[in-house]
Amino acid sequence: MQMVDMFYDQLEDAKQRKVPFVIPIGTIEYHALHASCGTDTMVINGVLRELEKTKEIVVCPPIWYGVASYAVSGPEKGTIQVDVDAYENYLYCILKSMIYGGVKNIYCVAHHQTEEAGLMPMTLACHKAGKKVIMEYMEETRGKGWWGSNDYADYYENLGSGDDPFSYIKVIPLLSAEAQHKCGGFDHAGKYESSLMYALYPDHVDLERTKKNTEWFALNSVETSMELGKHMVQCALETLDKIIV
């Protein structure tokens, strides 16, 4: 289900049943000469589109602008960089509205700079915003000292479950480290990411333009293939199906 298409009673029902609410965490960034600048966000949207076919989830509107950084290119090539502090506060406001509104099963799914599922500025901002919201929510609704009260004597028994408040918001990569290994690799605008995008949005990858790339990270984009892309989509789906519950 797409959140923007849902009516109030449908949203309330999803909240009550703790259906996963999934937020695509994206960026607008230069992806060489052959792939669109929305690649990082679009691949998440595309995989979730496929996941929707087999799993009940609520797909929230993507956050298109993100902490892209100017590591790959400057703004002159289309990269739009949001300062990490501003981004963290923006995401904090979104997550706060959702948590206080009764959504207690949120997944922030990122693809940008998620090699080996490592923590980078954007994913760190997501983690920080999420934890800040939860700490404030629990203190405001349960009072100071909530964790130390006897009401939470079973805290460790529920650790990681739906009853664990620190599991209300989870930050995960589109491709886990395990999925990346199964795919055979991970890159930026190279054969792996380009193939993933090509399988999901073939009209947003121009195979002829791959031959014009001169930057090191995009040289092997000439090896972009639908077969590899579909394999990567399947790897992502298998992992997400296990993680998103």
From TrEMBL:
It comes from the Bacteria. The lineage of its organism: Bacteria, Bacillati, Bacillota, Clostridia, Lachnospirales. SUPFAM superfamilies: Creatininase. Keywords: Hydrolase, Metal-binding, Zinc. The keyword Thylakoid does not apply. Belongs to the creatininase superfamily. GO terms for biological process: riboflavin biosynthetic process. Its cofactor is Zn(2+). It holds the Pfam family Creatininase. One of its GO terms (molecular function) is hydrolase activity, acting on carbon-nitrogen (but not peptide) bonds, in linear amides. The keyword Transferase does not apply. This is Creatininase family protein. InterPro entries: Creatininase-like_sf, Creatininase/forma_Hydrolase.
